[in-house]
Amino acid sequence: MQIQKLMEHLDYTFLTGSMETEISTLVYDSRKVEKDSVFVCISGTVRDAHDFIPDVVEKGASVVIVEKDVEFLPGVTYIKVDNSRKALAYMSAAYFDYPAKKLKTIGITGTKGKTTTTYMVKSILESAGMKTGLIGTIESIIGEKRTPAANTTPESYLLQQLFAEMVEAGMDAVVMEVSSQALMLHRVSGFEFDLGVFTNLEPDHIGTNEHKDFDDYMHCKSLLFQQCKKGIFNGDSEHLEGILKGHTCEVETFGYGKDNDYVAENVALKKDHGALGVSYHISGLTDFDVEVNVPGSFSVYNSLTAIAICHHFNVPVEKIKQALLDVRVKGRIEILPVTKRYTLMIDYAHNAMALESLLATLKEYEPGRLVCLFGCGGNRAKSRRYEMGEVSSKLADLTIITSDNPRNEEPMDIINDILIGVKKADGDYVTIPDRKEAIAYAMKNAKDGDIIVLAGKGHEDYQEICGVKHHMDERELVAEIIAENPDLSL
Predict the structure, then answer these.
(1) How far apart are CA 371 and CA 349, in angstroms?
(2) Minimal CB count within 10 Å: which of 229, 320, 323, 426?
(3) CA quadruple 481, 482, 484, 487: dihedral positive or negative?
(4) pTM value?
(5) Could you give all domains of the chain from N- to C-terminal order, each with its CATH number?
(6) pLDDT tens, position by position, 213-222
């Protein structure tokens, strides 16, 4: 492949060498350079790849893409672009022969709901016979192949590589989470989404190396709707106008408001023998009754989003209804079927905002007691510990404080920080540093009608201690506890 092929949809300045230079691989990591690679210099927050140009040329790179002025080394083609990350995205699309054009692409952005909604969409589309890949916070899925995720949205080269693998595997569509960071850093540049989706917006990811303020966060989210054909939006969001700013797509909305294109009506909570859920009627562009075995009003929004998306693929109503009944998402209000006496669930809530939303939702189901078990990560802001402790003590009847990922801190130091927040409210609490022992305590002391939440770990299957990740899956811990105490499953 000649370098000019990779640059065909980019504005650039040819500096020296030849645009007919043959290249072998496209690389942005200097460690992966080989003979005749094209190396894209990314200016990172920690390292600037422009500093590695002599090294990559010595390794055999024949083309170097820069966004700064550099000294030329002989025998190398240099091309300058305005933004190296954007260039990498467009070049990656060309390198893999534009795989997104061979798939129906669905991108979902928002503060909350992205993960659950992607799994709902995948479940519905596959029930209708559409082979659907998934890319998100937990993992990427291509057929039977599941790969744990490093980022919510992969770097552009890796994303295009995943698309190419999906095409090769015969996928018809891909549904993916699109983070604000990904939009800001051009990870999803270089192609157009068939559908772009906005779930909601709350203050998050604001600070050093993320977004400078809420307006910047909202602006980055809005960029998705300048690169999709159709946009589906939460019409109830107070930030809808900001997200729509500059949009170039067709617009549809969903929500409770009667002016939306898809409207949720007659919402009711479902509570039955340890299982929690929600039911409602959807009207507007489609009309039927919906049941979801995931609790809370946010489940209404997540399922509304999924229905609106799948409506564009002409999925039969009965397929949608059954898929929503069956869908499960690892670590997202994941109910473990232990006993009908009480409800035991795992959730990823690991900050005060998420925990408050979760516990407030569960209180609506009027449990006998609401029991919240959690810890906080080490080497992270202490404010998170105080806030989570206070939220749990305020909303839960019993808080069980345990260890999460202590990293390089002493677990009891973290627990003592959490206790400062816990003591600001009046909920009962116990401290049990060992997480398995803490879970066993919750199960052994459960009362009929209780809802017990194991919060913070969610889909994670490890515990990080002093830089080492030790295998620990709460589902396995629960199974071990029941094996050791069979009467707990009665």
Answers:
(1) 14
(2) 426
(3) positive
(4) 0.89
(5) 3-95 (3.40.1390.10), 99-326 (3.40.1190.10), 334-489 (3.90.190.20)
(6) 788 889 999 9
